[in-house]
Amino acid sequence: MPPRKSTETKTLDTKGAKIGEPVPKAIIDTNTASVGIPRQAESDLHEDLSALRKQIDALQQRVTTAARLAKENADDAMRQTQAAVKRHPVSTLVVVAVVCGAFALIVAGRRAEPPRRYRYRSALDELRDLYDSVRDRV
């Protein structure tokens, strides 16, 4: 179905958009055989800036609130930990020793393990030998 022809005449701006304006899609005017963008309504930069400032203020308020809550939660966790250590000093020492021992075992285990490239070297050598023997047969 062919597009309907517009009976209204639009003046097209062929210079392009100004800095800060949204770039609309180009329009092809078949009546005048020209391509351009329709003239855009003037926008008030002061309104746009005030809206952006309000958004920035709201974001700053949210970040401040989140930081305050995180600090309060960290303070509560620190107080609870101090209270648990004061109530159960021997248990705390045992837990710390277990955690340190587990960490030491993990570090020692990683050092004792051969690197991955050496682990598969024998299988790779066997494949190369098999390939060489098959190549010699052919």
TrEMBL record:
Highest taxon above the source species: Bacteria
Compositionally biased intervals (Basic and acidic residues): 1-18
Transmembrane portions of the chain: 90-109
Region of interest (Disordered), ranges: 1-20
Keywords: Coiled coil, Membrane, Plasmid, Transmembrane, Transmembrane helix
Keyword Coiled coil in annotation: yes
Coiled coil: 42-69
Annotated protein name in UniProt: DUF3618 domain-containing protein
Organism: Rhizobium leguminosarum
